[in-house]
Amino acid sequence: MNTSGGWKRLESKLAATQERVQSLEWEPARRNSFVAYTVERDSAYAELDGRRLLMMSGYSYLGLAGDERVVAAAKAALDLYGTGNHGVRALAGSIPLHEELEAEVARFAGRERAMVFGSGYAANVGTVAGIVGPGDTVFIDKYDHASIVDGCRLSGATVTRFRHNDVDHLARRLRAADPGGVRLVIVDSVYSMDGDIAPLPELRKVCDEHDALLMVDEAHALGVIGPVGGGIEDHFGPGCEVDIKLGTLSKAIPSMGGWVAGPAALIAHLRYAARPFLFSAALGPAQAAAALEALRILRREPERVAHVQHQAERLRTRLNAAGLRTQNSETAVLPLIAGSDEAAYDLATTCRENGVIGLPVVSPAVPNDLARLRIAVTARHTADDIDAAAEAFVASARACRILPA
Ligand SMILES: Cc1ncc(COP(=O)(O)O)c(C=O)c1O
Question: With a 6 A CB cut-off, is 120 part of the ligand 1 pocket?
Answer without folding.
Answer: yes
